[in-house]
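$ run holo --ligand "flavin-adenine dinucleotide" --emit tokens
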Amino acid sequence: MARTDAIVLGAGIVGTSAALHLAKRGLSVALVDRRGPGEETSYGNAGVLEGNTLFAHAFPKGFGALLRIALKQAPEANYHLSALPGLAPWFLAYRSNTRGERAMEFAKAMRPLYARAVAEHEALMAEAGATRYLRREGWLKLYRSDASFAATAREREYAVELGLRHRPLGVDEARALEPSLAPVFSHAVHWPDAASVSNPLAVTNAYAAQLSKLGGVILKGDARTLHRSGGNWRVDTDEGPIDGSQAVIALGPWAPDVLGPLGIRLPLAFKRGYHRHFRSQGNAGLMRPVVDTDYGYCLAPMEQGIRLTTGAEFAHRDAAPTPEQFNRLMPAARALYPLADGIEAQPWLGARPCFADSRPVIGRAPGQPGLWLDYGHAHWGLTLGPASGRLLAEMMTGTTPFCDPTPYAAERFSS
Ligand SMILES: Cc1cc2nc3c(=O)[nH]c(=O)nc-3n(C[C@H](O)[C@H](O)[C@H](O)COP(=O)(O)OP(=O)(O)OC[C@H]3O[C@@H](n4cnc5c(N)ncnc54)[C@H](O)[C@@H]3O)c2cc1C
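-- output --
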């Protein structure tokens, strides 16, 4: 029987970062996934490392915005009717969590993690030889109207208060940064301290390779076989069963598959999202990710081409893909940037694992000694993977954590 100090279940950016942080602290670690590292949600994102995040994605405000979504005309959101009844309590909680004082509560609770996010990636990239994927060009948010720019004023005011650098730009100034953009927007904001990566899969793979160098093992196995065996946690892998005195659930959208049978039911919903790569016309290109906020999509320069990622689709996690949002947003995207033909025939689909307060769960699993949780990073799991992994590893090894983990405890849902 193989034994380790810690079994980490899920080799996305979150689990791989946690495993690496545990190995760096001298623990023997087995990282277990049914696929290769980084091949699920952590593959398909927009690659933005957004340490400036202050507020969670807003719930649509006003009757008009809700009606457009209801009529399936909104490019930024889609839904499956069959998923809505089950999501109603989550929507109500999300709505109240993204307004007024509650929105500020999120900003304050999450600031310590976001503030460390880019630096923690930089540290792991330096160790893993992955710095070549890192761009320090920030990202650009575009606003099509005065109204949509004004609607996000609170974010910029709070950023000023906290000293987070950002520069509101006119159209010409924005086009000086990104000359391939057409002047179809009216305002832009450059956030220079955000970073981005040109290949999120390669970054997770580099962290996984670094884990192997430190003696960690990467195994194929089904996390749903997790069970107690004596005083340990045991999981079955292709190499046989493995025991760990501690286990970490870092299964992103699949965490409930393992936690449900253990009696841990936390209110996770899925904001599904799609991407597709496009070639650019002529010599067009982008230096950094650009988000067209009114349409809710992002254009991110990747090694594979320009990756266009969509906003949220509320649907059952495993429901068949319905990439209708592309039809709604492609005219706007083509007007903004000279996209040529698509590279893949079908879009990629992933699911952002999202709690109603948009905070991840990082810490002990309630009622299950030796079991730890690190999932639910929603829109910003690529950004937060290494900072969360460090925090979790510090908690698991009894070191003073770099920030107060209380806001991320699973127990917040039982109070
Ligand atoms: C369209 C889109 C754009 C995004 N853009 C950004 C962005 O720009 N910046 C950012 O920070 N974040 C972004 N995100 C969010 C980010 O991608 C996620 O928050 C993050 O990838 C979650 O990582 P994870 O490791 O928790 O999950 P995952 O990467 O999904 O990892 C979970 C792992 O668990 C494994 N697994 C599942 N079930 C089992 C099982 N039974 N047995 C064994 N293994 C199992 C899976 O194979 C997978 O490898 C975006 C997401 C989407 C969908």
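-- notes --
DSSP finds twelve helices and 22 strands in the chain.
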